[in-house]
Amino acid sequence: MYAPLALLALSALIAAAARLPGTPLHPDLAPVAVLAALAAGGLLLRAWIARARAPALRLPRKRILVDGSNVLYWADNTPDPATITMVLQALKAQGYAPVIWFDANIGHLIDGRYMNARDMAGRIGLPHDAVHVAKRGTPADPMILSMAMRERLRIVTNDRYRDWHATYPHLALGGLLVPGRIEDGQVVLDPASSSGASSRRRAGQDGRRSSGPSSSAPLPQLPRQQTAGQAGRRKRQAPPPPAA
User: Deepest of 60, 130, 145, 209, by most Cβ within 10 A of its Cβ?
Assistant: First the structure.
């Protein structure tokens, strides 16, 4: 857009200078400069229209995992897909892109039949590539924890995954698990709380007793996990103790 603007200014200047008495410029330059100014104005108008019609820039959203089979029980300890929808909407309002996992029996719990990822995506209003259903006979917990470790994502859940601590030591990281509850029809997320339960039904009850900020409060960033190699390098780089 700067080139047409510069051309317009230059053309207008030449057209005006060519009409001044005693100017060294040839008079025939005036109509040429006017035509150039009109062409530059047309280019500016075209660029302005294109910019007005261009879609707004959409910044990428931060991803966060949701343990759908746990969140399902957050309202009155009763499996309700509307609870999942509420939590997803609260996360989206904070600028997150939720990725949700379910156990294989999720369809039987909410609709009396098996439902795959596409079925659940249509039910809760998420893109099908953001919805996962574990295979029959396999719990969703290790899938959730593997993705969280691999991609450094937090998990919205009231489950503390006690049975998986030996396999997934990154569970010891503070802020990894984000518990919550439904209170007075509103989603309440509490990233600072360590409350939770291994059982999904107990998780809903424990979540109602926890306290914390409403869903409008931003969730903290997940700290980067320090690997054993990094710890070793830092230990080797530490200065020696002063001589006695």
Answer: 145
Q: Residue 129: what residue type?
A: D
- Do both 100 and 178 map to the same domain? yes
23 occurs within a structural domain: yes
Tokens of 159: 């489950």
* CATH code for the domain of 174: 3.40.50.11980
Residues 69 and 28 in one domain: no
CB 36 within 8 A of CB 11: yes
pTM above 0.85, yes or no: no
Split into its structural domains, the chain has a count of 2
The boundaries of the domain holding residue 10 are: 2-53
Tell whether 243 is covered by a domain: no
- Which residue carries 């209003």 as its tokens? 125
C-alpha–C-alpha distance, residues 237 and 37, integer Å: 67
Of 181, 169, 159, nearest to 101 (Cα)?
Answer: 159
Q: What is the pLDDT of residues 207-228, one digit of tens each?
A: 333 333 344 445 545 444 444 4
Beta carbons within 8 Å of 186's beta carbon, 6+ residues apart: 214, 215
Helix 2-18 vs helix 29-53: angle between axes, to the nearest 10 degrees?
160
Indicate the angle between helix axes 81-93 and 117-124, nearest 10 degrees: 70
Residues 22 and 91 in one domain: no
Contact status, residue 42 vs residue 48, Cβ threshold 8 Å? no
> What are the structure tokens assigned to 182, written together?
């439904």
**DSSP letter at 214?**
B
Q: Mind listing the pLDDT tens digit for each residue in 100-151?
A: 999 999 999 999 999 999 999 999 999 999 999 999 999 999 999 999 999 9
